Amino acid sequence: MKKHLLVFLFFLAQMAFAQQDCTSAIPICSDAAISLTPNGWGSVKEGQVGCLGPNGESNSIWLTFSIETAGTLTFVVTPTGPTAVGIDYDFALYGPNHNCANTGATPLRCSYAGVNSTIINPTGLDMTSTDTTEGGGGDGYVKYIDVLPGQVYHLLLNNYSPLIAPFTLTFGGTAKLLTPFDHNSTQTYQPKPFVQPGPTQNGEIPVCGKIVNYDFSTFSAQILNTNPNFIVKYYASSADSSNDANAITAPTNIDVTNTYYYAISYVDPNSPSNFLNQCREFGQIKFLDKSFTLNPATLTSCSNNNSGTALYDLTTATIGADPIHVLKYYPSMYDLNNGTNEITNPYQYVSAEGSAFVKATNQFGCTATTEITLKFFPLVTARDAELTTCFLETNPSTGLFNLNNAVVTDLGNTSSKKFFPSLIDAVDSTNEILNFANYIAPNGVVYVRVFDNRGCYTVVKITLKVTPPVRSEVLKDKIICIEDKTSLDAGPGFKSYEWSTGATTQVINNVGVGTYWVKLKTGECVTTQTVKVYPSEQPVISNVDISNNTLTVNVIGGTPDYQYSMDNITWQTTNVFSNIARGSYKLYVKDAYDCEPIVITVLVPNLINVITPNGDGVNDTIDYSAIADKQNLILTVFDRFGAKIHQADKSNGYKWDGTIAGKKIPTGTYWYSLTWNENDKKNTAFKFSGWVLVKNRE
After folding, report:
1. What is the mean pLDDT of the chain?
2. How far is residue 661's CA from residue 664's CA, in Å, rounded to a whole number?
3. Given a cut of 60, is residue 605 above it in pLDDT?
4. In whole angstroms, how far apart are CA 192 and each of 4, 187, 366, 684?
5. Pairing mode, if any, of strands 71-79 and 109-111?
6. Each residue of 310-348: pLDDT tens digit?
7. CA-CA distance, 177 to 28, in Å (whole number)?
8. Which among 336, 416, 417, 411 has a CA at the least distance from the CA of 370?
9. Which run of H or E residues covers position 167?
10. What number of other Cβ atoms are within 10 A of residue 46's Cβ?
11. What's the rounded Cα separation, in Å, for the pair 532 and 521?
12. CB count, 10 Å around CB of 607?
């Protein structure tokens, strides 16, 4: 809904009219009350006749009005203001159609009644008085007048008192005064209400500071609201507007501290002398300076990890902007002025030290700019460091580190530290190493985030070095005869030695078979090295082959080369003994370590080469029952083609009588072998082979 221009003629009270003569009387174009303050008289001291008497005007003002509808007309003039008591207002009403040139005309109504100095004394026309004029002894009121449409009257009001005082003038009766500003009545002249200028139609014009060459005429269309036959003029003062002087007709510079005025006038296109052409409504135009300023501000942030940049939230800068301002940020004033390279994410602006610039726009379109200085907090200083520790014996590729011992800051630095396995983790503050005082790791690096109480940080590297075990190159496992002793030498170059035997020397002597350790100290690290003294492996006689008078010894295990003996005195390197007579012997064998020889008993059995199974009791059988105590004793007989023809064992008394299944075999030479395991710890296998001639007679 539009706000209408509610400019009553009562507004005349605030206007600084020059003193009027009859010819320049102020037109009253409304029944509404008016208020004015006469002070002196115009160019001519009029009204020196009639009821005003010979003294005429003192502090006077001339008004004129015309009648729109016939009827009765009354009015009341009431002194106002702090000096209203005892003020003596007189009046003379001329008309209808008074000629101002006739300065001696008799007023239609007149009163110069005296006043009571203790009260406020109104005067005017009322419906009860019967007199039409009165002198000093009157009551201040005279008879109403009957009026007709189109009649024009002039009213002279005179403050006879020496004190200056304003008055109000109100009209009554059944008649109405003529006015072109009739949108509340017949709408004859003004079919639509006038609208005050400004975006909210209240006469207030928001502007952004000083305005150069402002064109007031841009308000005219809004004010007149398409009403025909009206014009608007603009003025720099109320006096100019009331006197229609010095109208602003061209664009002019605006002083926002000043109040400007406008007057709406009717122009009868058919009658330039029409009373309506004198009527004016007034309004004010107040330019409201909506310009504003911003404060320069400084933001300080962390240049983390010596990056040379920092992250800023530009919106936190205290620049004095209003919450409803629209803010835009730019990296330079050039960009701000040209609207280029706007910072679209001012909440996370990455920049080096320098400046950013902000432009604020308020709801009235006014703008202001300022600079935001971008600074760094003092950089967090730290440096790379190195930690060295001894290997862990349980896992020699790793060591136990106290990361807090790494000297990454100077003495007295109050920064805090957190440790991370990777650079990314340190920057993102993820996967923090919580057991930094007991951190087990191999050779490598970790990263430390060094930060101050503002949260600024830098990341440096800690190189981790594990001192590897330093072992003796000369200390080796040994093999000795189990009955022997030896010495163990850990070699030179170690800070100290500590043997499992309790010895603290480089070499320990008289060491038998067993497992030993020595703690070798290099620098501050100790390497425990184990060494073993093994007993030499004894050779084992796997089997003995006896063929006729030749004995062959087969040996496994131990360390070749082997030596053999049958008397533990004379030794030979061959495993074959020849020309061995029948009987029982000791057989000795030793290996390359020359330890105590192993010894077994060797039986060279009686060799039977001829049997004559004819039942005479002489050489009838091959009989080895005499050595039946041997383990796994078996006699096997083969024909000349190698086919097995007989096996003698425990079941048949270890004998053969030259038959196969009870039948005599043909006379001929047969082969046989005698095998057994000796009753010793190794169950040494023996094989005795030979031939036998079997003679069977039919």
Report:
1. 89
2. 8
3. yes
4. 9, 8, 33, 143
5. unpaired
6. 999 999 999 999 999 999 999 999 999 999 999 999 999
7. 8
8. 336
9. strand 167-172
10. 25
11. 20
12. 15
- Reported as a single tens digit per residue, the pLDDT across 84-132 is 999 999 999 999 989 988 888 889 999 988 888 889 999 999 999 999 9
Supply 313's token pair. 């939230």
pLDDT for position 541: 84
Q: Which two tokens stand for residue 302?
A: 């962390």
Tell the residue number behind the tokens 């300065």, with chain if given. Answer: 103
Q: For residue 698, what pLDDT is reported? A: 54
- The amino acid that residue 62 corresponds to is W
Name the CA dihedral angle for 322, 324, 330, 333, rounded to a multiple of 10 degrees: -50
53: left (phi over 0), alpha (psi -120 to 50) or beta: left
CA separation for the pair 337, 346 (Å, rounded): 18
* 328 vs 667: CA distance, rounded Å: 132
The amino acid at residue 670 is: Y
Distance CA 284, CA 255 (A): 14
- Please state, as a whole number, how many other Cβ atoms lie within 10 Å of the Cβ of residue 115: 21
C-alpha torsion sign, points 567, 568, 572, 574 = positive
pTM of the model: 0.58
Maximum pairwise Cα distance, the chain: 214
What are the pLDDT digits (tens) for 10-50?
Answer: 344 444 455 678 888 889 988 888 888 888 877 777 766 55
Phi-psi group of 140: left, alpha or beta (phi > 0 → left; psi -120 to 50 → alpha; rest → beta) = left
Cα 420 from Cα 406, distance rounded (Å): 14
- CB burial of residue 491 (10 Å; 0-12, 13-18, 19+): middle
Q: Dig out the tokens for 353 from the structure.
A: 């030290």
The confidence score (pLDDT) of residue 652 equals 87
What is the sign of the dihedral through the CA atoms of 390, 391, 393 and 394? positive
Nearest to 97, CA basis, from 261, 311, 273: 273
